[in-house]
Amino acid sequence: MSLFYKFQYLVGLTPWEQMPSLPLGDQAVALLDRVGSGCEPPGERALDLGCGTGFWSVWLARRRWEVTGVDIVPKAVRAARDRARGAAVSSHFIEGSITALTTLDIGSGFRLVLDFGAVHGLTPEQVRAVGREVTAIASVDATLLMYAFSPGHRGPLPRGIGREEIEQAYGAGWKIIAEESFDLTAAPRFVQKAHPSFYCLRRTGESEGEHPGARAGGRHWCRISESSPAGMLGLRRSVVFVHQLFRQHLREVLRSWFGA
Questions:
Q1: Dihedrals φ, ψ of 131, to 5°?
Q2: For the domain that residue 18 is a member of, what is the CATH number?
Q3: Rg of the chain over CA atoms, in angstroms?
Q4: Number of domains observed in the structure of the chain
Q5: Rounded to an integer, what distance in angstroms lies between the CA atom of residue 48 and that of residue 68?
Q6: What pLDDT sits at residue 6?
Q7: What does DSSP say about strands 66-71 and 45-49: parallel, antiparallel, or unpaired?
Q8: What is the pLDDT of residue 4?
Q9: Model confidence, pTM
């Protein structure tokens, strides 16, 4: 999957990077605002898994989070650093694998972890590795926001992961406190078949293998609950729109390759 993303960035076919600039991206921003309401971020650490060109990292840094972004694509990391410099914010971007976070010298104590489509394209072994690595460096009261396709075979597209695999990967020390299917109205057929969902996980206590520095603070700041799906609607619509763009660009790539 890493080769797929490196190719996409190489040729400039990265429709997922367009989501924040679209009107529907404002609704995704509203979701992050909502889950962070009541939080006092100065000095709080956030980790952006598969940060790409760093939009969400910079967005958090502007709200005084201490942000670290990790991506395996060198071109994306360079662009993220340029974005942070252009925004005059301090964010730390690392080229490396999210399956080996503890080897990247990024520290620990992360209160917020973002996974906006990074893990659901990995192998089962890699997903479990990410779960162990995130657990090792997250704070004891951390929150993880993620979205994922449901499991399936889709060629170069993400294979997806389900609730059971997420729970197994992150272990008993994390709890899924919210799960909501995306609104698939007018969505492309392959997206409808993928049944994507948004998940919010909360750290429930110390887990085996936890980094000694992970136990920091004691406040749960995530405000999402099982009974409050309204705030997730914007993100669901945004991701559907992004994948519509992705299908269009993928067709162009296939046409150039095979003359279809």
A1: -60, -45
A2: 3.40.50.150
A3: 17
A4: 1
A5: 6
A6: 56
A7: parallel
A8: 57
A9: 0.73
